[in-house]
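Give me structure tokens for this 73-residue protein.
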Amino acid sequence: MFLCLKDPTAPPSNRLARSPHIAEMIDLYSQVRNLGALPDGGALLDQRADYYAYFRIFGGVEAEVRFRQTQQR
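Here you go.
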């Protein structure tokens, strides 16, 4: 995901093409962030465990990207 965030105009790498589940989770995470709504009913801890785990990872990667971008300026 870090490489995807590095260049937002680049197409998905072959690794994502070989892992459609990961690509679907990244897409779902993006939709959740853009729409401000969770995929399942209820609060955060009512979501599926895999959603919660992937979203934590993706959020951490986004934070790292933002941190690195501010350090380069």
